Amino acid sequence: MKELNIQDAKLFRALCDEQRLAIIDLLQTSEKCACDLLKSISISQSTLSHHMKILVESGIVHARKDKKWTYYSLCDEGMTQAKHRLDVILNKNTLAYQSCSDKESKKCAS
Questions:
Q1: 3-state secondary structure string, the chain?
Q2: CATH top class, domain 6-109
Q3: CA-closest candidate to residue 61, choices 72, 51, 70, 46
Q4: For residues 36 and 70, what is the distance between their CA atoms, to the nearest angstrom?
Q5: Which among 7, 100, 104, 108 is most buried, taking Cβ atoms within 10 Å?
Q6: What does the domain layout of the chain look like in residue ranges?
Q7: What is residue 41's predicted lDDT score, i.e. its pLDDT?
Q8: What is the pTM assigned to this prediction?
Q9: How far apart are CA 91 and CA 103, in angstroms?
Q10: What pLDDT is recorded for position 48?
Q11: Contacts of 47 (CB under 8 A, 6+ apart)
């Protein structure tokens, strides 16, 4: 069985925080400037920078510099890859769970 790789770890790290999930939700509609994100969620600029670094490293958010401002948007390719990885992981776990449940059923039947 293939081990989870570093990109999987970055993806799960990005998705395991409710503030980062709120940021992803805000980016669903359109590209946003960091200043707009700060207006929408109650965190400091340094905390936003920390969250954005994690989201960008995961590949699901794209950052674009324009003079002194940074604009963020969801990355279609990154989101597609994230969905695919989650599907693969969840399907493996579903099969393992079903296999385990089958064994338990047989044990109970005997």
A1: CCCCCHHHHHHHHHHCCHHHHHHHHHHCCCCEEHHHHHHHCCCCHHHHHHHHHHHHHHCCEEEEEECCEEEEEECHHHHHHHHHHHHHHHHHHHHHHHHHHHHHHHHHHC
A2: mainly alpha
A3: 72
A4: 11
A5: 7
A6: 6-109
A7: 92
A8: 0.76
A9: 18
A10: 97
A11: 19
